[in-house]
User: Which sequence fits this backbone?
């Protein structure tokens, strides 16, 4: 009998070649995928870097710096001078931007530039020989103001209606975009449905210069949040050391702002608040009652203390759900650096003096002496 089970060398070679071809195709596909990914990542990273490099060094810093541009300076030399003076972020990007825009005819001279200027502002100034643009609008936002009060101030200084301002700062999509843009200070905590206005407390008290007559609400808000971020950044690590999130730190700073005016008293009151939280006691601070009521009153009545609100610190045994106003920087300092004490109570006399106590008995004695 003969057997037909002999191996077919040709068939084996075909199978082998087919397997090798598959392997080669897989390797080529993987290499292509890696190359495309690398190109995409480099492209995106480059775009992000260039976009960032073309933004002002600090949109809020309008301090004028003298910058000398010598006669005969090339664009490359001018770009280097501007980077050295910290007026632009990257001299190469600025140089390429000038070339891309086909700009030329820059004039020598002594300029006054600010870190708030955009590349367009700088190019325009260098072409015309103009020193620096004067602000077309200056608005001062005091400490201890709510967003409604801030909206009111801008409505008097610009053509923006208060309702328009409030609508923008309550727009969920807009708030989400700000959280993405400012993750250092803004978090999902501000989206809690019980929070009255998400950006309450995050629009810093300062004087703002605008280089357009009628800035949009978004331009205003962005400028104010940039300022808040700049002020808060040095204190964030200290907040975390105290077990506070940025949102809680900002909330505490707003309470301290509303309870005292001097730095020393703010530090003492911050410690009283921490001591009460540690003891599981409600903070019982009247400004939170007024915020919960949504009105200003010269005197908080006993019936007011009953208002059920996550802002009312007679009602909740913790920090309120969010800030009740903006604040000065020394209120933030007090929040992270309170004066060490065992005080659990304080009261303000009619002359503005604040008295502190460790016990309720001592507190009541001082109340009878200085208040009643």
Assistant:
């Amino acid at each position: 009998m003969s057997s037909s089970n002999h191996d077919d060398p040709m068939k084996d070679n075909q199978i082998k070649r087919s397997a090798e071809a598959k392997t080669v195709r897989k390797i080529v596909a993987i290499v292509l995928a890696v190359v495309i990914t690398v190109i995409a990542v480099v492209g995106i990273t480059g775009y992000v870097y260039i976009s960032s490099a073309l933004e002002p060094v600090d949109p809020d810093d309008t301090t004028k710096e003298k910058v000398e541009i010598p006669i005969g300076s090339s664009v490359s030399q001018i770009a280097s001078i501007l980077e050295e003076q910290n007026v632009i972020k990257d001299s190469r990007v600025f140089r390429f931007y000038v070339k891309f825009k086909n700009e030329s005819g820059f004039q020598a001279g002594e300029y006054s530039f600010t870190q708030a200027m955009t590349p367009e502002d700088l190019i325009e100034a260098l072409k015309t020989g103009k020193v620096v643009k004067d602000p077309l609008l200056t608005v001062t936002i005091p400490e201890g103001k709510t967003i409604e009060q801030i909206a009111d101030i801008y409505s008097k200084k610009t053509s923006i209606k208060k309702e328009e301002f409030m609508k923008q700062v309550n727009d969920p999509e807009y708030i989400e975009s700000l959280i993405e843009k400012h993750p250092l200070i803004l978090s999902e905590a501000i989206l809690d449905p019980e929070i009255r206005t998400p950006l309450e407390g995050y629009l810093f008290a300062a004087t703002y210069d605008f280089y357009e007559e009628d800035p949009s609400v978004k331009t205003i808000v962005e400028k104010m949040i940039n300022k808040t971020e700049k002020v808060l950044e040095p204190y964030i690590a200290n907040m975390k050391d105290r077990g506070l999130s940025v949102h809680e730190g900002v909330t505490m700073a707003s309470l301290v702002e509303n309870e005292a005016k001097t730095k020393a008293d703010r530090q003492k009151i911050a410690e009283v608040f921490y001591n009460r939280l540690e003891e599981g006691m409600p903070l019982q601070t009247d400004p939170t009652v007024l915020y919960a009521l949504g009105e200003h009153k010269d005197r908080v009545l006993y019936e007011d203390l009953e208002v059920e609100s996550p802002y009312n610190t007679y009602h909740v045994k913790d920090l309120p759900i969010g800030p009740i106003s903006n604040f000065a920087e020394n209120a933030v300092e007090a929040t992270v650096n309170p004066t060490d004490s065992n005080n659990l109570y304080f009261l303000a006399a009619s002359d503005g003096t604040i008295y502190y106590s460790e016990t309720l008995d001592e507190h009541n004695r001082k109340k009878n002496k200085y208040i009643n």
Summary: The CA atoms of residues 179 and 186 lie 5 Å apart. The longest strand covers residues 65-69.
